[in-house]
Design brief:
Mean pLDDT: 94
Helix content: over 70%
Order of helices and strands: HHHH
CATH topology: de novo design (two linked rop proteins)
Number of helices: 4
Low-confidence stretches: none
Number of domains: 1
Strand content: under 5%
Distance between the termini: 23 Å
CATH superfamily: 23S rRNA-intervening sequence
Number of strands: 0
Structural class: mainly alpha
CATH class: Mainly Alpha
Length: about 120
């Protein structure tokens, strides 16, 4: 069953990206108020960037453009990993949440790299 994907919503990579967004939003709910415009906002923006760029790139006409948006998503994954590590070091999240988030981001990053390779 090798059906052609017609919409970005059908992509596992996009769906995992949305899951990461929801997990990040849950995680930052416990952050101090003073972080509302700092780490909280930055983590939310980074996480949203991941599936958003996958979706935008999917709707481009050329693989070169699509790859550019996938690379942006990959960069957002790296940024978010850094922010999660910092959040843990500041005791804003516990080790279990940190590990859960990093595992999902690692999976997403591997999927992004794989798709980039497939696009040539």
């Amino acid at each position: 069953m090798n059906e052609k994907i017609k919409n970005f919503r059908d992509l596992d990579i996009w769906q995992l990206g949305k899951t990461i967004v929801k997990e990040v939003y849950k995680a930052v709910q416990g952050f101090p108020q003073k972080e509302q415009y700092g780490l909280t906002a930055q983590m939310q923006r980074c996480s949203i960037s991941i599936p958003s760029n996958i979706a935008e790139g999917f709707n481009r006409f050329h693989n070169k453009e699509y790859k550019r948006f996938l690379y942006i998503s990959l960069g957002s994954c790296a940024e978010l990993e850094t922010q999660i590590e910092i959040s843990f070091e500041l005791n804003y999240i516990d080790e279990n949440r940190k590990n859960l988030l990093l595992e999902k981001i690692d999976h997403e990053s591997r999927m992004l790299r794989s798709l980039i390779k497939k696009l040539g």
